[in-house]
Every structure is written in C-alpha cells, then in structure tokens.
Amino acid sequence: MEQDNAPLALVIGATGGIGGAVAERLVARGWRVRALNRSPQTAKGPRGLEWVQGDAMLAADVRRAAEGAQLIFHGANPPGYRGWGALVLPMLRNTIAAAEAIGARILFPGTIYNYGPDAFPLIDEDAPQQPTTRKGAIRVQMEAALAEAASAGTPVTIVRAGDFFGPKAGNTWFSQGLIKPNEPLSSITYPGPLAVEHSWAYLPDLAQAMVRLVEQPGAGAFESYHLAGHRMTGRQLVAELEQVAGRRLAVKRLPWLALKAMSPFNETLRELMEVRYLWETPVLLDNTRLRARLGEEPHTPLATALETTLRGMGALPQYPAALAA
C-alpha cells in the first residue's frame, strides 16, 4: 500500500532502457513513481508505476504530470529517434519549466558525446566540452540549459556514463549493434579496434548511482558526476562473453565503409557515422567525484551483468554450457 508521505518522482522516458531502470530503482527505494507516456494503456515498464497520459513535447502535459513531484527524471527521446536534433531541446525546456514551477530537482543522464578528442582518454568531471559532432553540440546545449536553470534556482543532477548494456537496454550499441537479440549468441560485431579500451555502464548500476546521489543530503544546486562502469577492450569483452556463453564467438567488424555509403539516405546511419571516433581511441570516465560523494560506485560483477543482459535479450540458450560446467 502506497504511503502518502513517500516522495514522488516523475519519470519521462520510463519505457526506455535508462528511464525504466531508474523508475524501477526508485520504486525499490520506496518512491512513488509517475510515468508520462503518450499511450499509457499499452506502455511497458517496471511494475508499480502510475502511468499518466501526456506528450513530452507539450509543456502543459509535463507540468500537469509533474504536480507534487520532488524529482523529475528526464530521459525523453522522440519515437524511433526521428527528428532527434530538432525535438530534444524543446522537450528538455518543458521539463525545466515544470521543475521551476513546482520546485523539483531534475535528474539527467549525460553522455560521452559532449566531448571531443581533446578530453580523451580519461575524462574527468570538469573536462571542457568541445564536441566535434552535431549530436555532441546539441547535448552540450542541453546541459548548458540545465546549468542555466540551476543558476536560477532549479536544482540539477547530471550523471554521465559510457555506452549502456542491461537486460532491458533497448536501443543501444550493445543490444542493437554488437549482438543480435532473440537468438543464441554465436557472434559479435564490434565497431572499433579490439585493443582499444571503452567504458560500458550496466544500467542497474547506473540507476542505483543516480538514485543514491539524489537521495544524499546536502545536494548542491548543480551537480555533475561520472560513472566509470566497466572499462575493457573489445578483446576483453569478447572473452567475457565467450565465458558466459560457454562457446567461442565469431568476431566481425562493423562495415563502416558500407554504412558511410548508405548514410546520406538514412538518418540513423548518419548518426552512427558521427560517433565512430568514440570507438577508435580509448574513452574512459573518471569517477573521482562520484566516489567521494557515495564512498564507492555501484558495480555488479561483469560476468553477472553480462549473463543477466544476454538472458534479457534472449541471446542465451536455457542451459548454456558455461553454467552446466
């Protein structure tokens, strides 16, 4: 039974990978969680949510859904990421306006797209954001809007992570590019050199860190943290996946030249081409500030995280050889 005095959070994007993970963690921590969705009757997300109908593009819908909330998680994306560049800033401004009106804190997932090669290989939490891509420039504008809102009195927490993976990760490099869902794992398509390190964030760990950070007493007006996650080369990731799957995996390279040839006719492929540079050099996140705030970073053992992810994707047989052994 819900307690009337439990804190209330509005989650925008609860059907997505990170929004769903944050909503699930908030519920587990005793929050009441309201989720905004255009079609709440058919929306799929964690149990225990209060679904309300509304569109993140409509300021009145967001304001109405946010009534009484102490926290707004903003994970909104256009359906199928169509028109992403034109829509994400207006959606964020609607969240900022709602948070300003009710005095709520905004919780926002940051990305590594904000940074150019000058910040690599180890990106600290105060590194200058000088992106080289259109997507990165838009993400910088989004965080600038949040910083401006914080300076005007609306508190903001940003938690940045590398590429996501998890049992309900949705549209990510891991679940849509590296591995084919809903069939037994037999191969991996890797987008960069196998010797290069990359930061991966297991979604339940990221969600736990986010919720713990906003629950900490004495939070500042504008806070930005990095989650280090699992740092590994492509070769290490393949070896871990083979251990979990109990078999050798064929390793394929992403056909960048073919994608480049098709990209003028496909918006998604154009987006992929923009971020190729993030796979060609080590991109790691320094979590010094997060560890100072929480004492330690939530960190599920990699084998457990990968097995849970593959099972959620339907990419493991019922009794993999690794478990039988």
UniProtKB/TrEMBL annotation:
Span of domain NAD-dependent epimerase/dehydratase: 9-220
Pfam family, one: Epimerase
InterPro entries (UniProt xref): Epimerase_deHydtase, NAD(P)-bd_dom_sf, NAD(P)-dependent_oxidoreduct
Gene3D superfamilies: NAD(P)-binding Rossmann-like Domain (3.40.50.720)
Domain of life, source organism: Bacteria
GO CC annotation: cytoplasm
Any one Gene Ontology molecular-function term assigned to this protein's record: aldehyde dehydrogenase (NAD+) activity
PANTHER family associated with the record: NAD(P)-BINDING DOMAIN-CONTAINING PROTEIN-RELATED, PROTEIN YEEZ
Protein's recorded name: NAD-dependent epimerase/dehydratase domain-containing protein
